[in-house]
Amino acid sequence: MKQLWQQLENHLSAHNPELLADLNPPATDAQIRELEKTIGVQLLADFVEFLKVHNGQAGRAEPLFEGYRFLSSGEIAKESKLWSNLLNTGAFKGFKPEPQSGVTAAWWSDRWIPFAANDEGDCICLDLEPAAEGVKGQVIQIWHDDGGREILAGSFEKFVSDTLR
Prior knowledge:
By secondary structure, the chain is of the alpha+beta class. It has helices spanning about 1-15, 15-20, 30-40, 45-50, 75-90, 155-165; strands at about 70, 100, 110-115, 125, 140, 150-155. α3 packs parallel to α5 (about 75-90).
């Protein structure tokens, strides 16, 4: 992950210094532990390593991931709790998910870790509980008002690598 970050930082330095300057300092071990405690999930090592280089972005520049802002550990916890609270209060009752093969047929799962979000309520998530055809750690896109649940990459590392293209 550090090598991917270095490539990404080199690219941003040459092509988008404002976005590079928008990246937060590294997440601390305490912040990572607090995130895992809050969401009740142990994060994958490559994602933790990613957060330990930059803990999200401030949000004053364009989003890092094609229209989706890279969330800090605190924002990940808030976004996750928001979706979980909506699920637990029945807000998604009657909504019909239409997942791509490999993604659990749900409107929301507490095992989806939202690490990027747009300003419209949609997220890019690590999927820690995929359907039988999926892979733990795949990256999925979810929409707040559409049942589509799409796999963007088979792993977080692949997702980040694709961002460099």
